[in-house]
Amino acid sequence: MPVGIFRVCLVVITAIVNHPLLFPKENGTVPENAEEIIQKMKEREESLRLEQLRLEQEIADQEATQKALEKAAEVVEESKEEKVRWDMWTALSMVIFLLIELWRQDFQEGNWQDTGGEEDDMAVLGKAFKGVAFPDKAVLASFYEKRILGTTGDMARMREMVEGFADDLLEALRSVCNRDADMEVEDCMGVGSMYENWRVRKPFVCDLIVPFAPPEPYRFQSQTWCSGNSFPPDEQGYGTIKVCRADEDVTGCICDKTKLGEDMLCLLHSQANITRPSSEMEDLLCFKNTQYLDADQVMKWFQIAVTKAWNRISHKYEFDLSFSLLDSPGALKIKFRSGKSIAFNLTPVVQYENSDVYFISHFPQSSLAADLPSSTHWFLTFAVYERRFIQLVSKTLPANPCHVSCLQILSFLHGKQCSLTGASGLTNYHLKTVMLHLLQARPSQDWAPENLEARLQDMLKFLEKCLHEKKLYHFFIGNGKVPAELGFPIIFQRAEPLNLFRPFVLRRDVYRKTVDTFHEMLRNMSALINEYTVHIPLAHTNGIHKESL
Question: Looking at the domain that runs over 124-247+280-534, which CATH code has it been given?
Answer without folding.
Answer: 3.30.460.90
